[in-house]
Amino acid sequence: MRQIIILLAFLLSSYGFSAQTENLKNVSETQKISKRVANLFKENKITLAFNELKPYWPLPSNELESLEEKTIKYINIIESRFGKSINFLKVKNETISDIAIRETYIIQYTNSAIRLIFTYYKNNKGWIINAFKWDDSFEEEFK
Known about the structure:
Blueprint: H1 2-14, H2 27-42, H3 46-53, H4 61-82, E1 85-96, E2 100-109, E3 113-123, E4 126-135
Antiparallel strand pairs: 1-2, 2-3, 3-4
Helix pairs in contact: 2-3
């Protein structure tokens, strides 16, 4: 009996370690999330952007929090070097059959830009965020 209680306590405590609790129902919902997050990045509302991603991203909470902290730090550095953000636009939508989607956005700053890449995967319950990254390598979009 004691082992069952310990196992149950462990399972309940580990439940919070993964942030993903929901699935997106269709491609339209993935596009809405990407657009909202891109707009929040443009507005330098990084915490709100990560809050939009968390329910659909099966990454441990501590890793998501670390990514969020680093992103806040670097976006502030980018704004100090590149100027304020002025716009965002979707530049690419790619698919692998009906199982994966990759959407690419550009956030324009006064003197440069950054790229946001959202990758969604369709599991047996719906769409989840498989990966999200941002960088300043938008020149790769010319290929």
